[in-house]
Design brief:
The chain is mainly alpha-helical and about 350 residues long. It has 14 helices and no strands. It has two domains: about 220 residues, Rhopdopsin 7-helix transmembrane proteins; about 120 residues, Arc Repressor Mutant, subunit A, CATH 1.10.10. It comes from Leptospira interrogans str. 2006001854.
């Protein structure tokens, strides 16, 4: 491939866009500097590496920027491409953290970040650059599919994911163009680099809007949970406990009221800490209390007992509901969690229980 200096004003425009990208990164970091949410640290790293990759594309297209170290040109593009890909996945892990993303997808995404970083380091010592490009190409395709599947799995319940999909289009598109170019399936054209750099500001804008929507989603979720806790406390009207006073009768009555009358076990977002806050006791005291009067190992098992009973009722009365819908209405996070609790507490799966109720449905 021939490296040329190209038009002076065109090069100046590319440099201006890269400097503008760095300025936007610093501006976003300044705006969100006081937040404790780790997603903003990830977004900073993501944008930094995306911009650095842009610098590398610029340097790779114009050889006069690296006159003394031509070997560095071969290592740098794929190295930064791997790092940019790792930062992108890390950002998506943090971005999707408030959603009901399944544990399997969380584990796969987090494990993918570690694998990509290892590949980035190892790729620097591989002399066969064509092999490195092929490894990156297949890694990029695998990561893109994994991120898209993870995002689409929660797109209905997590509204900020809908806008972040728009951000993936130029990123995945530019990556595919680069891969096709390195695999000699697409002829080199310097305007591909220009198009990539021109898309950077639009990517930043979409990410900023998505982050704002995510922040609103988290705040609404937190306020809704706080309101539910306060409302339950007012309904129970619990007095402040005196030191040394026997709390067992009032706790048992309050817990029975919450689970049998208010039926708050149907809310999968309320944790043991939330229940303890409603009852105005420590989470460890709640666990100890449940173990004493129910002979169950933990509070979670005690709550799941009510959820399994609700699932049994729905299996008897609502034949039209799917397993995932029954799990959601019973208070389980997912159908997998329902099956696990069902098997533990009843000795059979929900399908086996339904078959026992309706043997003619075979």
């Amino acid at each position: 491939m021939e490296y040329q200096k190209g038009n002076y004003y065109r090069n100046l425009l590319i440099l201006f866009l890269l400097v503008l990208s760095l300025f936007i990164i610093l501006l976003i970091g300044f705006i969100y500097r006081q937040t404790l949410d780790p997603v903003y640290l990830s977004i900073m790293g993501f944008l930094v590496f995306i911009t650095l990759e842009g610098w590398v594309c610029f340097a790779n297209g114009y050889k006069y920027l690296w006159p003394n170290v031509p070997q560095f040109q071969n290592i740098t593009p794929t190295l930064f491409a791997f790092f940019a890909l790792a930062c992108s996945v890390c950002f998506m892990v943090q971005f999707l953290s408030p959603s009901a993303l399944h544990k399997i997808f969380r584990f796969l995404l987090f494990g993918t970040v570690i694998v990509i970083v290892c590949l980035a380091i190892l790729s620097s010592f591989v002399l066969d650059r064509a092999l490195v490009v092929k490894i990156f190409s297949w890694t990029f395709i695998f990561v893109s599919v994994l991120v898209l599947i993870s995002t689409f799995s929660i797109i209905k319940s997590f509204s900020p994911a809908r806008k972040i999909i728009l951000c993936m289009i130029p990123i995945i598109g530019s990556g595919l163009i680069t891969i096709l170019y390195y695999l000699d399936l697409l002829k080199y054209n310097e305007y591909y680099v220009h198009a990539y750099l021109l898309s950077l500001p639009s990517i930043y804008i979409v990410i900023t809007v998505s982050l704002r929507d995510r922040e609103k989603f988290v705040k609404r979720k937190f306020l809704s949970r706080a309101y539910d806790i306060r409302q339950m406390q007012e309904k129970l009207n619990l007095p402040v406990q005196v030191v040394g006073q026997n709390k067992t009768p009032s706790l048992q009555f309050s817990l029975d009221h919450l689970l049998r009358v208010e039926r708050i076990f149907k809310n999968p977002e309320l944790s043991k800490k939330d229940f303890a806050e409603i009852l105005r006791i420590a989470p460890n005291d709640l666990d100890r209390f449940v173990q004493e009067f129910s002979n169950l190992q933990s509070f979670e098992i005690y709550i799941n007992l009510y959820r399994v009973e609700e699932a049994k009722h729905l299996l008897k009365t609502r034949k039209d509901l799917k397993s995932s819908e029954i799990a959601h209405r019973s208070g389980f996070v997912s159908g997998r969690e329902m099956e696990k609790s069902f098997k533990t507490l009843t000795g059979m799966t929900s399908s086996e229980y339904k078959l026992m109720l309706f043997p003619d449905s075979i």
